[in-house]
Fold:
Amino acid sequence: MARGAIAAGCNYYAGYPITPSSGIMTEIAAHFQATGAGVFAQMEDEIASACSLIGASWSGARAMTATSGPGFSLMQEALGYAYFTETPMVVINVQRAGPATGQATRVAQGDIMQFRYGSHGDVFPLVFCPASVADCFSLTALAFRYSEMLRLPVFIAADESVAQLRETAYLDVPAPVVPRRAVDDTPFDADIAGGVPGMPSFGDGAALLVTGSTHDGHGMRRVDSPEVHERLVVRLRNKTLLREAELDQTLLEDMADAEVAIVAYGICARSARAAKNALRQSGARVGLVHLRTLWPFPQQTLQAACANTPHVVVAELNLGQLAAVVQGVLMRPVHALSQVNGLPMSPGKIAAFIAELS
Amino acid sequence: MTRDLSHWLRHPDAPTAFCPGCGHGILLGTLLRAIDTLAIAAQDLLFVSGIGCAGWIPSPHILADTLHTLHGRAIPFATGAKLANPRLTTIVISGDGDLLSIGAGHLVHAARRNIDLTVIVANNGIYGMTGGQTAATTPLGVSTATHRAGNPDAPVDACQLALAAGARYAARFPVTDPPRLQAAIARAIATPGFALVDALSPCPTQYGKFQPEDSIAACYRRFEADVQQRSDAATGAAMPFGEFVP
Structure:
């Protein structure tokens, strides 16, 4: 993830130590200090880290931080501010077993709904979810690309197991991050649905008005206008929602004839793949829907993939957070395979669960 | 001396949102005079504020880059902006609740790291926007919406706090003394590294609501006297006006 950020031109990193994400910070700090390629700031807490990213982004930087559960909770107010002010930045949350301090060195996927609904108010975030070392690199770079393109804070929903993986990886050169359109008379509005305005930086002479209060296209506070608030909140929603297909990184495997679909993401997608391959060898028609974009949820992809699949199993390290979403999207019952014991889910457990279905 | 400051204002003819008698308008004028004397290009200036009445002093009034942030977090926002573009003369101006209560930790660490910021505390000794509740700066014994019988806790001394944390310059003056306040702000901006100005800016609407005086002028006199005389129960230490250098 650190290397993906560097490849995407990350040049500002602020962070606060927290297990199991700290390795990302030490890696980027060492790189910046050795090369002078960016500014590293070790802040006093996660709130300050997230806030400083916003300031740095408006100064023109490509900014990132990484944290884990409790730190991600502390950042929520600033993340909502970044969303509402259309500030590009990348935030990695390496999920660990929670709630509260939980098990700091153990894996979980319990923050799926916090990514979606962590901020107060109506937010429609963009969240990528890596399952391999190659994913960590490419999805982090992709997060920078879309954060700049859509003027959004983009989240990486990593988990402890994926973040600590060691494996041989073949890395593609990431698609370049397109520089911001630095001039706009109305840097906080756009006429087309889901449009993204240009973004001048501090020091450009644009006399910017950046505020987390409801604002018009010029950034002027409009805290009593029903029309201005609705126009802004709806346009921000449409930035991600109308791009569901473009943002979708889902991988489908063996789904053409599948009678059982396993829906999984992160570390569980690897176990699900192993289970699927083993069951296929014994003749069972099992397929995999590997989600790598969690939000906006890839509804159309899932509906098309599972249209003729009698059984859908959602395997995840929480008590059914995404299973409920999948059930809603497919409008029929699904099988939730949940595990919250701080350990990765074994392929054998998934295979045994599927064997019980028929 | 009359100085035309209209070129610093985004809407020179528009009124401010401040209550009648609020000190923040005087503070805004004093700040702009200080900047005007320093001959800093507007393009190189960034004003960062938090939430509360004082958050509106720069935003939207000043015709320069402004960043109106979250409650308590103006300093870390400013830190990121300054580190990513060191060319920016970065001025944080926000309230006492914002900078010395919910955001006090950030102030300490920005001073410790000696980030080249100027922090101006628009200090009215009360939570104004929310209705006159006790603040971390409310002088001892002063009646408020949440302590009608008088604030039982000693207030924080912004200058001593900043200096203890490593600030290179600190000063305290009231808006009733614009020349010295202006000079202090100019010196703070010219100071390399972290500098703080505790600008006493009275709030007749909320601070004055619980005091016996009925005129704005009397409220100003009372607030300044309260801050200077009724600060620390244990030691009786006052918070004097003046400049403080480590």
